Amino acid sequence: MYEFLTSHWTRPQPHSAYTARELWTDPHVAEQMLALHLDPDGDVASRNHRSIDRIVAWLDQRFDLSAGKRVLDLGCGPGLYANRMSRLGARVTGVDFSGTSLAHAERAAPDGVARPRYLAADYLDLELDEDFDLILLIYGDLCALNPAQRARLHESIRAWLAPGGSFAFDVFSSALFDQVEEEARYTFEPDGGFWSPESHFHFLRRFKYEDDALYLDRHAILEPEGTREMFNWMQCYDAESLERELDGLGWEVLATLGSLAGDPYDAARHDFAAITQPR
Most buried of 5, 52, 142, 255 (most Cβ within 10 A)? Predict the structure, then answer.
């Protein structure tokens, strides 16, 4: 136990561990995440549903989704965007590796010709032999990836885009990074909680990497039968650093926005969005 906690308290090298799959596929945690997604007023796993409605409406206005546009929703979760876009008439493919989330997406999907297609897959390993008019990556998913994963995903997205198609996504901002502080805390959950249905301790260590505008929430879950860790990395950007990264990967930024609801860019916000195309 001493060795485990000593390791947990030690600052790891940036992106030295990746546990996103475990986070989203653990049966108990996946149910907790789904409940957060479906909270209409919450902004934890997804944006609140009023914001989602605004985003889908703006995407329809910008990209004419109702004209039957082909949309690829990466990290679609329980279909909160995909099902709304399908109801407008878009032909949507949603991709996620959480079976719990996809099961809800299927249950909530509209019937008829506009019903979305849902694929259970890790979008980093996805192979698709088709084109899309619009590809979406919503709620900071890009920020959880390391630089090599981001480059790999950009390459795939480039291959999946139809001529003239756009990649729209959002990221977390430098303003958020500036407010984050390193911390250490723990809780005891005798009757179970978010991380486990059983009695457990939860330890959190937050590390900041100032030179990289990167922070890590390192979670340790100690249960009677063992211990495990979850690493939640978050890369933060400002408009200039995001454009530099995209330029190096061969993308042109068509618009920098405050959100995918079309809000104007504001450097003080905790997130912002970009509309891009391959150069």
Answer: 142
Residue 103 sits in the same domain as residue 163:
yes
Instruction: Answer whether residue 38 is part of any domain.
Output: no
Could you read off the pLDDT of 45-62 as tens digits, one per residue? Answer: 889 999 999 999 999 999
- Tokens standing for residue 246: 């995209």
Residues 158 and 216 in one domain: no
Range of 241's domain? 43-172+237-278
DSSP code string of 109-169: PPPSTTPPEEEES-TTS----S-EEEEEE-SSGGGGS-HHHHHHHHHHHHHHEEEEEEEEE
| Helix H or strand E encompassing 95 | strand 91-96
What pLDDT, on the 0 to 100 scale, is given for residue 204? Answer: 97
Please give the model's pTM, rounded to 2 decimal places: 0.96
Q: Which residues 6+ apart lie within 8 Å of 251 measured at CB?
A: 154, 167, 276, 277, 278, 279
